[in-house]
Design brief:
Layout: H1 3-20, H2 37-56, H3 71-89, H4 106-127, H5 136-156, E1 166-171, E2 177-180, E3 185-191, H6 193-200, E4 212-215, H7 217-224
Helix pairs in contact: 1-3, 1-4, 2-3, 2-4, 5-6
């Protein structure tokens, strides 16, 4: 995916999420612990500001302030945070920036924020009883990001061990395949890129009927335990 495509999708998903803020802000977000829609909006806005500072000031220790509790204030705040992030990221992807994994460029954040917004847009939609498909190409890139960035970050932080065995994932719609871990894969997991992405992010059970397993499932499940994402 290129820089322009990431920014287009990021802009769309942030705009869609902002529209959800007209709903009940106390609705629970199923896959995010005890978070409500308000909490999810706060997370998305604050983490976006953190990424913006990582670009503009090249540091990763910024601690954004809390979001307003009232709806009107929250909407204004979220719109401002989203606008700031989009302005900061609308530049040459090769521009240097602080990042928590390589590459240390603005391009890293264009991709990372695109997938963060994609997953949390999905979270909000499903909490509100809505549904929309994830673009297969972006779901495909999201699966790749789990393995080339997020899972490695979890190992870096000491939140997960490096896998001792390998698994292989195959996207039935895009034709892409990924191997995570050393040696020959102990299991192969197949599904659409969207279903694989949602499984890796814990939004879909690995036992869902949309997911097909071949090989040693128990060993494969152990690799998936990770955790693979933050």
């Amino acid at each position: 995916m290129d820089s322009a495509a990431y920014l287009i999708h990021l802009r769309r998903d942030l705009a869609a999420f902002e529209e959800f803020l007209a709903a009940d802000l106390s609705v629970r977000i199923r896959h995010c612990g005890d978070w409500t829609l308000h909490d999810l909006a706060e997370h998305l806005g604050r983490s976006g500001r953190w990424a913006a500072v990582a670009v503009t000031e090249r540091r990763g220790d910024h601690r954004p302030g809390p979001a307003p509790r009232d709806r009107a204030g929250l909407v204004r705040w979220f719109d401002d945070e989203a606008g700031t992030l989009l302005r900061v990221l609308d530049q040459d992807p090769a521009t240097p920036a602080w990042t928590f994994r390589p590459p240390h460029t603005v391009g890293f954040w264009q991709r990372r924020r695109c997938h963060e917004a994609l997953v949390h847009r999905w979270d909000a939609e499903h909490a509100l009883g809505l549904a929309s498909a994830i673009d297969p190409a972006f779901a495909d890139d999201g699966v790749a990001e789990v393995f080339d960035t997020m899972a490695l970050y979890q190992v870096d932080r000491g939140h997960a061990r490096a896998p001792e065995r390998a698994i292989r994932l195959q996207a039935t719609d895009t034709g892409s395949a990924w191997t995570y871990g050393p040696g020959a894969p102990v299991a192969t997991i197949s599904g659409t890129a969207e279903h694989l992405l949602l499984m890796l992010w814990g939004r879909l059970s690995s036992g869902d009927q949309a997911i097909r397993w071949e090989g040693d499932r128990d060993a494969g499940e152990a690799v998936l335990e990770g955790p693979l994402v933050a």
